[in-house]
Amino acid sequence: MEKKLRVGILGATGMVGQRFISLLENHPWFEVVTVAASPRSAGKTYEEAVGSRWKMATPMPEAVKQLVVMNVNEVEKVAAGVDFVFSAVDMTKDEIKAIEEAYAKTETPVVSNNSAHRWTPDVPMVIPEINPEHFEVIPYQKKRLGTKRGFIAVKPNCSIQSYAPVLTAWKEFEPYEVVATTYQAISGAGKTFKDWPEMEGNLIPYIGGEEEKSEQEPLRIWGHIENGVIVKAEAPLITCQCLRVPVLNGHTAAVFVRFKKKASREQLIDKLVSFKGLPQELGLPSAPKQFIQYMEEDNRPQVSLDVDFEHGMGISVGRLREDTLYDYKFVGLSHNTVRGAAGGAVLCAEFLAAKGYIEAK
C-alpha cells in the first residue's frame, strides 16, 4: 500500500481501544490519526485521558500520546479526518447501533469490535479465515444505508475463537453436536487484577449473555447470503457454559464433538495444522502464518505458555482424544483481546482494504 490509510479509534481509552492502539503501532497499512472517546475525555491528550489506566504490557506508543481526544458523539467532525474507524465504544446496544450507523452514513467504513450489529441481517460478522465471503453482503447494506463507501462490518465474540475455527477445519466430517465449556479471562470484561482483586483465586460461573453468543454466533459465521441478508446455518447444535476464571488474557475451551462421518485422530490433527484461509494466501500483515497449531503434550495448551502464539493471532489446540459418550474431545486456547477482539478486527480491516472495500477518501 503506497500511502497508509488514516484510522480513527472510537472508544480509544478503554481496554480494547488500547489494544487497537498497541496493535496498530508501526502498522504497514494503517496509521492512527484520530482517537475519540466519551465527552469527559474529550479535549485532553490521549496520555492525559488514559493516565494510570493504560492496561497493555507494552508502553503507550509515542505517536498517540499527544493526540487530542475528540468527542465520539461529534460524528461529522471525527469522520472528516479519517478513511475508516475501528469501534470499541462502551455504550448501550441501541446507542452503539445508532452511532456506528451514523459514522457509516458519513461515508466512513466502520470495523467494529462491538456486539450490537452482529445480528443485523446485512452486516457481515467475519473471521477472515472462515467466512470472508460474507463481506459480499456489504453492497446490500450500502443500499439500505444510502451510502457509496460507508458500511459496518463486525467481528464475532471472543469466546468462540478457541473452537469455531477447529470445527470449521473439521467441516468435511460433519460435526453435528457440540458441548463446550469456556474458561474466560478477566480482560474480556475490560479488567485487570488491579481493577478486580476479588477475581484472584476465584471463579464466577456466569458471564451475562455469553452462553447465547457462544452457541449462536458460530452458526451465523457458517451461514450463507440469501436475498441480501445472512442466513445462519442450522447445524451443528451447540450448547455452552461460560465461566470467568482468574486469568488475565486467554480464553480456554473444553469441547466435546459428535460427527456424522467417521474420522481418525490423525485425520483430525492433519486438518487442523493444514487449515488456512485467504488471509494466509494474501499475506495480510496481521495474519498468522500458522492459524491453528496442535500440541501433543498432555499439559498443553497452557495460557501462560501458549496464549501469544503467532503474536496472539493463532489458535492452540491439544488433548484431542476419543470420548466415551461423544466421538472426540479437545481443549482450545485463543487470545481474547488480540484474535478475539482488536486483532481480529484489524485482520478484517486488512482484508477489506486488500479487496478494495476500504480506500482513502
Structure characterization notes:
With 361 residues, this protein is α/β, with parallel strands linked by helices. The chain has two domains: 5-157 and 342-354, NAD(P)-binding Rossmann-like Domain (Rossmann fold, 3-Layer(aba) Sandwich), CATH 3.40.50.720; 159-335, 2-Layer Sandwich (Dihydrodipicolinate Reductase, domain 2), CATH 3.30.360.10. Helix content is 27%, strand content 22%. The strands form three sheets. A six-stranded parallel beta sheet has the order 3-2-1-4-5-6, sandwiched between helices. The protein has a six-stranded mixed beta sheet with strand order 10-7-11-14-13-12. Helix 5 links the parallel strand 4 and strand 5 (110-112). The two termini are 15 Å apart. The mean pLDDT is 97. This is Aspartate-semialdehyde dehydrogenase.
Averaged pLDDT: 97
Provide the structure class. alpha/beta
- Strand arrangement within the widest β-sheet reads 3-2-1-4-5-6
Return the CATH class of the largest domain: Alpha Beta
**What characteristic shape results from the CA principal axes?**
globular
Low-confidence regions = none
